Amino acid sequence: MKQPESNPLRKELARSQQAGAHPDCDVLSAFAEGSLLARERESVLAHLALCTQCREVLHIATDAAPELGAEAQLKTQPK
After folding, report:
1. Rounded Cα–Cα distance for residues 39 and 41 (Å)
2. CA distances, 70 to each of 6, 20, 44, 48 (Å)
3. DSSP for 9-33?
4. CA angle centred on 55, ends 42 and 3, rounded to 5°
5. Which comes out higher in pLDDT, residue 10 or 38?
């Protein structure tokens, strides 16, 4: 059985869905605090949808400051 990593379609899909430039730490902090403008927030959300690394950074940051995590979770949950 082939491994998923060897599947050319999976490789191409992963390549086509690159997250692009990472937001800097100030932008991620502002996102966690809920202080970004709507268009900035949408941009960060789109990036986070594709970028495991930034999701992990945000997760670690919100674990370190639980009050930020609650704020970020409220801001990112669909209404």
Report:
1. 5
2. 39, 27, 17, 17
3. HHHHHHHHT---SPPPHHHHHHHHH
4. 115
5. 38
